[in-house]
Design brief:
With about 270 residues, the protein is α/β, with parallel strands linked by helices. The chain is built from seven helices and ten strands. Helix 1 crosses helix 6. Keywords: Signal.
Length: about 270
């Protein structure tokens, strides 16, 4: 039986599989809140997140002892870069040049436009955003998906012409959806799994509709270059991802979060 894992900001907790006994060693995992991929179990009914579940599925059967610390994304990145932690569950290649990436791209974020249900608007390139109020979140950067869209947001933000509205408070994605429901924002771009999860969790089904895809953002698991075991950990991760995908276990993980199964990890779902 597994010990209960609790994640709190800035604190580390360990989880060791019973009966492992093989002394494979400890892996320090730097987590952050981006549900359903990386979740605070206290706020999500015990769910740890898709990316964390993948890490557990791979390393616990090999006898590794996992230690987690939950903070924000920037701090998680820095802790893996400086070697104080070994793994960050997910990132894209543009997030850091000082973190080694898994050989396997295990999933892609599908950056999807959302509108209020009943809106006839659909995304047909940047020009189609004209005359619409676009919502975004402070700190987001879309360069890896669409430099043109990022330039559009930056230009209107500088002009302060009301065409782009930024949200910076807690539960940012949920707040953007509420602004859209109230008619203060017309369109918003976010990963489809993230929005689908929030809509289901907060009983917002039927209030919003997808309106086109901006692009796909491949996600990897990151490893500290300062850890001499990193090549070994990456090899185990890549082998484990293949096992999870081919066995159907990855789809089982998605279903835990109320998400539609993907036919293949890393596939543009």
């Amino acid at each position: 039986m597994l010990a209960v894992l609790s994640l709190c900001a800035g604190q580390a907790f360990s989880q060791t599989p019973a009966g492992s006994g093989r002394g494979a060693g400890e892996i320090r995992v730097a987590t952050f809140d981006y549900c359903p991929y990386v979740c605070n179990p206290d706020a999500e009914g015990g769910r740890l997140g898709i990316a964390v579940d993948v890490i557990k599925e791979i390393y616990e059967p090999l006898g590794y002892r996992l230690v987690f610390r939950n903070s924000n994304f920037k701090r998680a990145l820095l802790s893996v870069e400086d070697g104080s932690f070994d793994i960050i569950p997910m990132l894209n290649p543009g997030n850091s040049k000082d973190i080694a990436l898994s050989g396997s791209q295990w999933i892609s974020l599908v950056q999807t436009f959302y509108v209020k249900k009943g809106s006839a608007w659909r995304y047909h390139g940047i020009v189609s955003l004209q005359g619409r109020v676009t919502g975004s979140i402070v700190g987001y950067n879309y360069d890896s998906v669409s430099p043109e869209y990022e330039r559009y947001l930056e230009a209107h933000h500088k002009e302060n012409d009301g065409a782009v509205v930024y949200v910076a408070s807690g539960d940012s994605i949920l707040n953007v959806l509420k602004l859209m429901e109230a008619g203060r924002i017309d369109v918003f771009n976010e990963d489809s799994f993230t929005v689908d999860y929030l809509i289901a969790k907060h009983h917002l089904n039927g209030k919003f509709a997808s309106a086109g895809v901006l692009g796909f953002l491949p996600q990897y698991t990151g490893f500290s270059r300062k850890n001499p075991r990193t090549p070994e950990l990456i090899a185990a991760f890549d082998k484990g991802v293949r096992r999870i995908v081919h066995s159907g276990r990855f789809n089982d993980i998605l279903l835990k979060y109320g998400l539609k199964p993907a036919s293949q990890a890393g596939e543009k779902r």
